[in-house]
Amino acid sequence: MSRTTKMILPVAVLILALVALFPALVAAAPPQDPASAPPQDAANGQKVWAAKPCKSCHGDNGEGKYAAPLAGTARTTQEAIQQVRSPRSMMPMFNPQQVSDQEITDIIDYMKTLQRPASFQPIRYEAQPNDPQGKVLFNQKRCVACHGDYTRTAAGIVASGRKTLTDADVEKQLRTPRQFMPRFSEQEVSQAEAQAIAAYLRPIVEQVAASGGAPAAAAPAAAPAPAQLPTTGADPSLLTALFAALGMASVAAGLALRRRR
């Protein structure tokens, strides 16, 4: 056997072994499931979710809070759109100007990339014996999810030039809300309930006005969303190692041929 043959033979054996092992390495990696791969709009859904108030009720990362979790949802896009436009239970309605059908689609795509929590207990308000009816309703209707103790909202009202809050103000905001606030129907919050809520909130606004519209305390930092969306399919480290080994073998073979020349 010539010297050149002795140099090339181990390299050839290595290449053949790696080629033979390639199917086994791919089979050992997690299979790529097209149905479970992150949809192409999930990244935009993550941005939309961060910008919209949905997380106030459903949790910063869809894990659930006042309302049920959305992370890992099995809902279809059409079911989600239907719930946003004509909600069941205690959820208020969002119009297309507040969140479009495409944005809802992207949000659901994003939620499907997240892991559903193993268990969930919503935040419940336990009414105290001396609580006014308006305070009970404010918490039970989940107004607290976005407004907290209402002092920040009250500061905004005072900044707009008002020093009190009327029944008509609350009723108007519930039925024809400004900005991001969803719409509450008569079935969700009746006129009598709206008046009771106004009676509870009015002293808060007047107290903030009396204090000169003191700025609200900084809101607590939200739990960070996942930095990257989950991925599915083969483990890239296996393929990287394989191709690196093939590359080294090719270089060794090239050097052996050059020496032969």
Fold and architecture overview:
With 261 residues, this protein is an all-alpha fold. Among the domains are: 39-111, Cytochrome Bc1 Complex, Chain D, domain 2 (Orthogonal Bundle), CATH 1.10.760; 133-210. It contains 11 helices and no strands. Helix 8 (151-159) crosses helix 10. The radius of gyration is 30 Å and the shape is globular. The chain starts with a helix and ends with a helix.
Sheet having the most strands: none
User: In percent, how much strand structure appears in the residues?
Assistant: under 5%
State Rg. Answer: 30 Å
Secondary structure: helix percent: 40-55%
Number of strands: 0
Short structural summary:
By secondary structure, the protein is an all-alpha fold. Helix content is 52%, strand content 0%.
How is the secondary structure organized here?
Blueprint lengths: L2 H26 L13 H10 L3 H4 L18 H9 L15 H11 L21 H8 L2 H5 L3 H9 L7 H9 L15 H20 L25 H25 L1
Please give a handful of descriptors for the protein shown.
single chain, 261 residues, mainly alpha, Cytochrome Bc1 Complex, Chain D, domain 2
